[in-house]
From TrEMBL:
The keyword Magnesium does not apply. Pfam families: Aminotran_1_2, GntR. It comes from the Bacteria. One of its GO terms (molecular function) is DNA binding. In the C-terminal section; belongs to the class-I pyridoxal-phosphate-dependent aminotransferase family. Residues 18-86 form the HTH gntR-type domain. PROSITE patterns: HTH_GNTR. CDD domains: AAT_like, WHTH_GntR. Gene3D superfamilies: Type I PLP-dependent aspartate aminotransferase-like (Major domain) (3.40.640.10), Winged helix-like DNA-binding domain superfamily/Winged helix DNA-binding domain (1.10.10.10). The keyword DNA-binding applies. This is Aminotransferase class I/II-fold pyridoxal phosphate-dependent enzyme. Transmembrane segments: none annotated. Keywords: Aminotransferase, DNA-binding, Pyridoxal phosphate, Transcription, Transcription regulation, Transferase.
Length: 460
């Protein structure tokens, strides 16, 4: 291709085709895919391309940056910009095991990150961003937390919000604050592995309370409270991890009433509430003095923020919680807390979350189509709980999937004690590219359709 020629791989930019830099980047990707551009082809200098397309230089710069992010281009210093050779995939693993948000649909995350950090650095005391802060968050961070929790609680008192470095730190601190070594924690038979890890580390015993298709059974909770006098009850009531069950409002009210009668503290870990379609009110709305509520940004926005907001209405519990938290996590990193606050207050967090929600729903539709009758997801959230045919056990399937280059999580990873369901959890967000996710789900579907090979059948 001659530098003076108009690049034949570029479309005429459309007013209604979305951001122009993305139109250019997508045209580059299409041209590489169909062979119009080949590895080693030199691209026009940015100024020349901007003049040819009648756009400003910044648009072309952002387009080239986006194309580099997609591994389409490489810079060679003064020699210019060239189409990159395809990267060799050194690991073929398709990771369906990690519950992370998918890349947001229709949102330029890189630009949002750059803009957010730019605003933080422009408006903040940069020295303060690199210094120690009091645990629990600054006034502005707590106000942002109250704004984040407003869809669940109206407008909570920001003084009752504690800013934590992630939900796992909050759970660990609450175990330290509300229980003593040897105490019992009540949870559902399948529950979040982070709770099990923290309880084991601190010498607490997690005991299962029977659950049905609506979640923990109230009568069984009341009986367990009377028998075990638990230090706390752990609930994950919305799009539960791993079963994807959402408790109906009546069940939430019943559990809250039992906690009040039995004077039991509830930790309501609710990372998926804002991703769910029309979720019921949190359990904390029905027993505000008994329930500590955790909402993390890791599942709705991005794990790298490491920010969670904890609503603790009882001042005595709040002080004990803060003391426990300071013993191992003095503070949230001020820079990421400031970025989270900036995004929440300027509306970026809502836009990002909507993009994550839309992408997650697209991926659920894909999983439903590919897994057909085996799909048992809720249509939103980040994961699917897949019950297996009798000829597979969860551990067998996980090992067989690993040999096929697919990582899934077997039910025993979530088991509170005793036996576990014959199921696996499939996470839909951890594979960035939809095409690779589709390939992984199809490979898994084919694996499910055949019976396991006899042990020792493979010989190499």
């Amino acid at each position: 291709m001659q530098d003076d020629d108009f690049p034949i791989w570029l479309p005429r930019l459309s007013v209604h085709g979305g951001p122009r830099f993305l139109q250019i980047a997508e045209a580059l990707q299409a041209a590489v895919a169909d062979g119009s551009l080949k590895p080693g082809d030199r691209l026009p200098p940015q100024r020349r391309l901007a003049a040819q397309l009648d756009v400003d230089l910044t648009t072309v710069t952002r387009a080239y940056d986006e194309a580099r992010r997609r591994n389409l281009l490489e810079g060679r210093g003064a020699r210019g910009t060239y189409v990159a050779a395809p990267k060799v995939e050194l690991t073929a693993i398709l990771d369906l095991s990690m519950n992370t948000p998918p890349p947001p649909d229709g949102v330029d995350f890189d630009d949002m990150l750059k803009q957010g950090l730019s605003q933080v650095l422009m408006r903040s005391d940069n020295a303060a961003l690199m210094n120690y802060h009091l645990g629990g968050g600054s006034d502005s961070d707590r106000k942002a937390g109250a704004a984040w929790l407003a869809p669940m609680f109206g407008q909570p008192d920001a003084r009752q919000v504690v800013v934590c470095p992630g939900a796992q730190a909050a759970i660990a601190a609450l175990i330290l604050a509300l229980t003593a070594p040897g105490d019992v924690i009540l949870a559902e038979p399948t529950t979040y592995p982070g709770l099990l890890a923290a309880a084991t580390q601190f010498g607490r015993q997690v005991i299962a309370v029977e659950a049905d298709r609506h979640g923990m059974v109230p009568e069984m909770l009341e009986e367990a409270c009377r028998r075990h006098k638990p230090g706390l009850v752990y609930l994950n009531p919305t799009l539960q991890n791993p079963t994807a069950v959402t408790m109906p409002e009546r069940r939430r009210k019943a559990l809250a009433g039992i906690a009040q009668r039995c004077q039991a503290s509830i930790v309501e870990d609710d990372p998926y509430w804002r991703l769910a379609a029309a979720p019921p009110p949190p359990v904390a709305t029905f027993a505000p003095d008994q329930v500590v509520y955790i909402s993390t940004l890791s599942k709705c926005l991005t794990p790298g923020l490491r920010v969670a907001f904890v609503l603790v209405r009882d001042p005595h519990v709040r002080e004990r919680f803060l003391a426990a938290l300071r013993s191992f996590a003095l503070m949230v990193a001020p820079l990421t807390a400031a970025l989270a606050t900036q995004w929440i207050l300027d509306g970026s967090a809502d836009r990002l979350m909507e993009g994550v929600r839309n992408e997650a729903r697209l991926r659920h539709r894909m999983a439903r189509d590919i897994l057909a009758g085996r799909y048992s997801g809720a249509g939103d959230g980040l994961h699917v709980w897949l019950e297996l045919p009798a000829y597979w056990t969860a551990s067998q399937l996980a090992r067989a999937a690993d040999r096929e280059g697919i990582a899934v999580t077997p039910a025993e990873a979530f088991a509170t004690g005793g036996g576990s369901a014959n199921a696996i959890r499939i996470s839909l967000g951890s594979i960035k590219d939809r095409g690779r996710l589709q390939a992984g789900l199809q490979r898994l579907s084919h694996l499910l359709a055949r019976r396991p090979e006899p042990f020792g059948a493979a010989v190499v």
